[in-house]
Amino acid sequence: MKQFPKIGILFIMPVFFLVFELLFKANYLYFYSAVFDPPYAYLFNGLNLARGGMELGHTDHPGTPLQMLIALVIRIVYFLRDSPLNLTDDVIINSELYLHVISTLLILFIAVMLFFTGVSVYRIRNNILTALFFQTSVFVSIPAIQYSSVVMTEPLYMFAELCLILLLVNYLFTPRVKQKEIWFAVLAGIITGFATAIKIILFPLIVIPLICFSTWRSRLISTGAMVISFVLFTLPALSKAERFFAFMTGIITHSGKYGKGPSGFYPDEFITNMMEVFSDNVFFTITIIVMFLTLVIFGFPPWNVFVKTDNKLYRMLAGIFVFCLLTCLMVSKHYSPHYMIPAHIFTVLSWFIMLSLYTPVIPGEVAGRAGNIVMSTAGIILFLRFVLWIVPRSAEEIHSLKTIGFVNEHVCDAPRIIVNQGEGGLAFKEQALYFGFAYSGNEKPFYARTLKKIYPHSYFYTPGRGDYYDWSGAYHPVDLFIRYDNMFVYLAKEDTGVLKQILKSTGKYGVHNLHPVRSHLLFFNKATGEVLYKMKIDNRALEKAFKVKNEVYCGFERLSEENGYLSSDSSIYFSKGNLQTEDIVFRGDHALKTDEEMQYGMGTEIPVLPGEWYKFSVWRNSSSASGVLVFSGKGGGFYRAGGSIQETRGEWERIEYTLEIPQNFNSDTLKFYLWNQLQDTAVYFDEFVLQWLE
Q: If you ran DSSP here, which 8-state letter would residue 414 be given?
């Protein structure tokens, strides 16, 4: 009973962490407004697994343990909600709910692990201050506190590192019995494999058990367990192994973010990045220096008489030092502060080992007081740094909520164009959903259909390229604006140049020099720079913009002697008559079928000139929403693929693509064909129409 009050003290740090992170998470009410990259990418990939598939579109880290956890949470939350919606619709419509549940669970994982670490250390050392000392492991890193509430790999691998620290502490104070060391080796391998599967940057963790364990047998067992663990936790991503290794090769052999810069193992900014690594966290830098000096001091006479180099403490400190050094070198190639979290987490364990090593040399009371002074000073500095970071962040989020409130009150479900400016803070959830949708791999066609159903009037615009698009494909500006009398245009950052681009894209189609689209400023958030415009559209002017001067129709009914499809124009026929089928048809007796054996459908080439406009449409029947129109020119340099859903009748939907031949088109003919991009499902096409516009 006497131990209970002391053990009760060990609840303080975990509860403080839990409450603080939940309050911090409440600071940003919406992931889509504050930080949708990468949470929405992981949400969609978790949904892929939750739906029973093994398709992952985001395997760069590879991050599969997090995706597997998200899939499990999705299934449990969906079951408990007893929603009348299907699983996919419920997750997309209530994406913020699911993300907040996942976020809370990740915070809880770390808090629980902090508690068990403290309890385990207290039982081993019978010292409450030492136990509290270990519970500060996540507080020594500002990035660790920042990202603990975000749905990303960082909080999950922090949990894994705390598990490894707990294991290593138990190993330090367990009598040297080889059979027990083997079990420690197996557990260390499982944890390091799990952590590496979460994020490949933790691969150097393997050096800690390799250096720490006393026999080569234990080291080999630990390495083998790590490999097996890594493979098991990356099973859903094994089909993407080639892409993952290509991504890693690019990072290793190229500079720039994600290896997209010029080739070279050591970028020009390597030294600058290295200086930032050590200047951003002074406490970590001091730790590295003291670790190095300690290893040198106790590795050579006369100090080595106190500690043998085969001592557990010495070997473990050496392993942690090598791990931290390798992490610094890796991160300096492509630096971001949160990349250093793995090394920061081991800072507390390092100080504990060093103080333990110095105990035979320095009186324990002096060593203990020195440790308390160091940790107290570091804690005050870190706390002040965190306050200086969180206050402006809180103000920014409060200002963003004003825009969200205005949008919810005045825009609702009205047609809108969301300008893609690469900004993180947004008032519309659709941009975050599109980000996750873009990382959903081969499930994109399926989600395109779902998202189009839920958000039928949401569109996007990319400045510079001048592309208008939605979930299912691209639009010509006339095809888009002609659908509505009014539309809203949202910019996360004010940019009058972008508005001019949008107006210019339709200006030449006006009647009597009157612009068919007029705009006025509806809302401006001075604090965040967010802008909302309302567009008034002259539909009659746009209806006169294009006239159909010629049309070709093909119902896949008649075949030529060369086994091609005949069309309404005797001079044009289409290839792949062998794909004609009677299984499923939209109209008439025949349609065209593509599947895993024949993914490319009918096609042909037509003569074109720069500046000409064409409209292509075809009816599609696909359970997975696969099947697109593809366009290319001779010699490469031009490629388009897509098709926006315009109409739905039962299981059939009409997709359409309006194409302008660019001025720099380097071919006199345009090749187009139908393509089933998901080869594992059958897609049927019928009623193809090609129109020449003037």
A: S
Q: Is 384 within a domain?
A: no
Any idea which residue has 């993914």 for tokens? 599
Closest CA to 684 of 669, 694, 670, 674: 674
- pLDDT per position as a tens digit, 80-121: 999 999 999 999 999 999 999 999 999 999 999 999 999 999
Close Cβ partners of 387 (under 8 Å, ≥ 6 residues apart): none
Within 8 A by CB and 6+ apart from 535, the residues are 481, 486, 487, 488, 489, 517, 518, 519
Whole-angstrom CA distances from 598 to 557, 589, 680, 681 are: 19, 21, 10, 11
Across the range 432-450, mean pLDDT stands at: 91
**Domain-ending residue, one of 219, 245, 271:** 245
Helical H runs in 254-340? 270-280, 282-297, 312-333
- Cα–Cα distance measured from residue 352 to residue 134, given in angstroms and rounded to the nearest whole number: 8
Please indicate, yes or no, whether residues 88 and 186 belong to a single structural domain of this protein.
Answer: yes
Token pair in block for residue 413? 């479900």
Distance separating alpha carbons of residues 114 and 120, to the nearest angstrom: 10
HSE-CB at 516 with a 13 A cutoff on CA atoms is: 26
Cα–Cα nearest to 273, from 219, 336, 215: 336
Which pLDDT tens digit goes with each residue over 442-452? 898 889 889 99
Q: Give the tokens for residue 30.
A: 């919406």
Question: CA–CA separation, 365 vs 359, rounded Å?
Answer: 9
513 shares a domain with 590: no
Structural domain harbouring 455: 409-541
For the question of whether the overall pTM of this predicted structure is more than 0.90, the answer is no
Q: Are residues 590 and 627 in the same domain?
A: yes
Contact yes or no for 393/436 (Cβ under 8 A):
no
pLDDT value at position 423?
Answer: 63
